[in-house]
Amino acid sequence: MPVPRIPGDVQGSPVRLAVVPSAAVERLPDPALCDCLDATDPDLLVVTEGTAAARLRTTVPVPVRSLAGDFETGPTVDPLVDATVVTASDRDDLAALDAGATGDGPVAILADHLALDVDPASLSADLTGLDGYATALDPTIRERAVHLTPAAPPDYHRRWEAPDGDDVLTVVGCGPPDDEPATVTTVALAPDGTTTDTLHARTLGLRSVDAVGAKTARRLRHGGISDRAALADADPSTVAAIDGIDAGRADRIVTHARANRDGEVVVHDAGAVSVPSGPLFVDVETDGLRPTAVWLICVLDRTRDDPLVSFRVTDPDRPGEAVAAFAAWLTANAPDRPIVAYNGDRFDVPVLTRHVREHAPDHLQAWSDRSTADPLRWVREGAVVLPGRTNELDRVAAAIGYDGPEEPVDGAVAARRYRRWAAGGPAPDVDRFERYCEADTRKLATVHDAVRAAVDDATRVAGEQGKLTDFHHD
Question: Of 58, 56, 61, 21, nearest to 38 (Cα)?
């Protein structure tokens, strides 16, 4: 998922880096590594160990750098089209970096010298190694560079004051999350800042196909199907002939591979999908996965000239403020409109129900009587297959063709910002999180429209086939 951008002034197309941990290289066969390259479209790959770099250099057609130093001596400086990327394996490399070699534009420095010391109780973290790191760098480079560290997860982004107090260093994490060591992080130096995103090994190659785990992927490869393209082209009966894959699973995985290839929703059972008409698309931001506060609610109402309606908590001492306003607005302005929420059955709807009961009990009955829909419900029931490497909203919407606004943060970042505010810290940039929330409602609407179109097509085809059958019977 994308995380907050750091202000920058890179011009033109984004410069993209893929930071690949050795665990990912060890686990991925060559087709999956090529799929990683296709998914991330990097200008440069950086790996954490020299042996991994050696393998990648024989597999991928883009430059590969190693934080282990590999056979390079001194810092590696890559003057890409719109930015300069520096890879440094030790402090001597940092000290040897010539400011003149980095050009006049933005600079990204990737080095394994910084680490996080996290205090879960206070929701704070110290950056260890900063003094030596900052001291080794030329001061003229320090402040204008983005400092990337694989020792921090990709949702880490913070500005730190240099030890001498002369400038501020922007530090961005590009390492895998603690619980997913085989995660590839992409870093994009974009015209309006730096963003990161993640791609786990299980979303690459054959494993990106629904119902294909590690064992099934091995069976497919042994059966001569090495990548998603070959799987999409295969006949389900051919896949079912592979030892360990039955006909039902074969049909399922071939269908999903084709959905990914074509960027289309596949409908297995149109009668099981009740796509609502004229719905409200809803997304919420909370203070965590077991929320005590729903602090931002966005509603996309496409019948309005200004389609976005949002409800905010303006004071953390009033955590029910947004829910109370939302419930009252629904009752007054959209009493009979259905709600659509992505993963709403398992998160948004039960969370809102609990908080409406607590903070707006007068509207609980009206809320409980309201019709709701969740595209993932139809996926879980086997009625539809959505395209995308995973069923995450971002990936499904992108596969379908969403090209609307983006705001590169995520729910985890939103939750942390609110918790810090509630604990007495600075208020979050609510406008920014509202843009993120609005983008999710628009992505949800894109998915909803694609499902509706696919169901309508499936229903029409079934009707035509029924008429043809009736004709032959006559």
Answer: 61
Residue 196 parent element (H or E): strand 193-200
Within this chain, do residues 146 and 217 fall inside the same structural domain, yes or no?
Answer: no
Q: In this structure, are residues 227 and 208 in contact, taking their beta carbons and an 8 Å threshold?
A: no
Q: Which residue, chain included where needed, has tokens 């059958």?
A: 469
Please report whether residue 22 resides in a domain.
yes
Our count of domains for the chain comes to: 3
pLDDT tens profile 1-47 = 333 333 333 344 678 889 988 888 888 777 778 878 877 888 898 98
pTM comes to 0.72
What is the CA angle 229-231-233, rounded to 5? 70
The strand pair at 64-66 and 76-79 is best described as unpaired
CA 233-216-37 angle, 5° bins:
65
Could you tell me the residue range of the domain that residue 445 belongs to?
272-456
Which of the 8 DSSP states describes residue 468?
A: H
- Say which amino acid occupies 381: E
With a CB cutoff of 8 Å and minimum separation 6, the contacts of 154 are 3, 172, 173, 174, 175, 177, 185, 196, 197, 198
> What CATH number does the domain containing 289 carry?
3.30.420.10
Q: What are phi and psi of 58, to 5 degrees?
A: -95, -5
Whether 291 maps to a domain, the answer reads yes
- 373: closest CA among 455, 265, 276? 276
